[in-house]
Predict the structure of 1D-myo-inositol 2-acetamido-2-deoxy-alpha-D-glucopyranoside deacetylase.
Amino acid sequence: MTDLPARRLLLVHAHPDDESINNGATMALYAAQGARVTLVTCTRGEEGEVIPPELAHLVADRDDTLGDHRIGELAAAMKELGVTDHRFLGGPGRFRDSGMMGAEQNHRPGAFWNTDVDEAAGYLVEVIRSVRPQVLVTYDPDGGYGHPDHIQAHRVAMRAADLAADPAYRSGLGAPHAIDKIYWNRVPRSVAEQAFARLRSTAPDAFPGIAAIDDVPGVVNDTRITTEIDGAAHAAAKTAAMRAHRTQIAVDGPFFALSNDLGQPVFTTEYYELVRGTSGAPAGAREHDLFTGVPGVSGASGTEDVPGAESGARS
Ligand SMILES: [Zn+2]
């Protein structure tokens, strides 16, 4: 394992674009610090709507080529974030976007929502045992806002974390590995309220409408937030990554809209709830680093702990 950087972060998302919206600043920050950042995306987002009129033909009920197109958008977004390890769960197209909750696509063969959790988790166990992340980031049990693929991504990620640590589970997938800390994506309600107030006062006409706070995934009372990552230095990378998902996202300054044309804020401080593992912050305080308290990992600069690194090797 001496070829792995000291700090290793795994993010599990449902569709291309979710990673940039939720965690773009965090991913850019850790990638810049030399941490291994691994993104696993569960579907290609084939059922998405398309914003640019000239690309409308890609959608599922016309050419049905949006999935392939979004592979390219995701690759471009990862380039903006400096993330080189991005994969699709089971390979591109193994699981298909299930559409919105209640859609007939939910029950189609191959739809992610229609997939056995343990079967999908097996693919993620292989990644976990290979990359050996100390930190996992995914959604809460509601998937942040109830989309079936987001709920399923939560279930698969949590199940895979357990299975990866179980020595009795499929030894052929690699040596067992226990993840130290698991986080769910969050937005504190007070921060969302302030950001929407700013949107209303400074850019009321940027988009045809303005989203409701509860349209933002993962909004919870502030008391649930354990961790905040200040990504201000990587705000430009985050918005560039969001712009790369051109079929899905329209960015206007510090605001953006999805295909529903409802404006919402881009958060460059990103928030998390630690749900497994021990907080590295004093009681009552928030963490400012996802790796705080992880054994064998120290400080925010990150690269000095690389196992097996020789002095001068990075000169
Ligand atoms: Zn999504």
